[in-house]
Amino acid sequence: MWATLVHTGRVATVSGREFDLGAAQSRPSVIVDGPDDAVWFTRNGDDRVGRIGYDGVVTAIEIAGAPYGLCVGPDGALWCTLMSADAIGRVSVDGEVSTYPIGTTGAFPAMITNFGGELWFTLNQGNAIGRMDTSGTVTTYPLSTESTGPVGISAGPDAVWFVEILADRAGRITADGKVEEFALPAGSKPHAVAATADGGCWITLWAAGSLARLDAEGNITEQVALGEGSEPHGLALDHGSVWVALEKGSLVHLEG
């Protein structure tokens, strides 16, 4: 398991390996397993997407616009949100860079996921979910309430889950654009979401210092306290177990 150390410009593994990116201001953020024997991650502080090969070689590719969310797309390239550019970026494993405007100003695209052969992403200030095919054509799905602040997003087996940090809700959107929203504990400020194979999801409740599991109908079936001041952010699933990155500087492993 790999984790980004956003405040120190480093990337680390739970086995004890640590990689200094040589740029303290780089703010490594979202990290994913790449298609090419490497992990890839966004460097939100210095407009780059980074790569660490399984051989330990560290490289980076410039892409302007404050890259943040990241996923492997249906074409085998890395796709990222460009928060300050209102665009989605594409970086091939060979280093070719392309950008695609989302057509909305000030929308602040946040997280991104690959579902049904297309890219789905949250528009944090646009109060909507975006959808883009690999040619750059965008469809936008506005949310039912103003100023919900959608952040995390994750593709499930038959729909995409997302969370609304300002409205304390989880959402689910199907390929035909149908949106359902589910209430979470008041003041919990959900941040990240990871869909599960059974159609449900796990969600980090940042302000509540806890982790919640939802079933496919949006019911909370489990809640795990992570401690006062833990501020859970990053979230990943690994063969049925759950990993959570805490702002206080540690990882939590919840075994399946």
UniProtKB/TrEMBL annotation:
Keywords: Lyase. Pfam families: Vgb_lyase (PF24684). Gene3D superfamilies: YVTN repeat-like/Quinoprotein amine dehydrogenase. The keyword Lyase applies. The keyword Lyase applies. GO terms for cellular component: outer membrane-bounded periplasmic space. It comes from the Bacteria. One of its GO terms (molecular function) is lyase activity. PANTHER family: VIRGINIAMYCIN B LYASE. This is Virginiamycin B lyase. It comes from Kribbella kalugense.
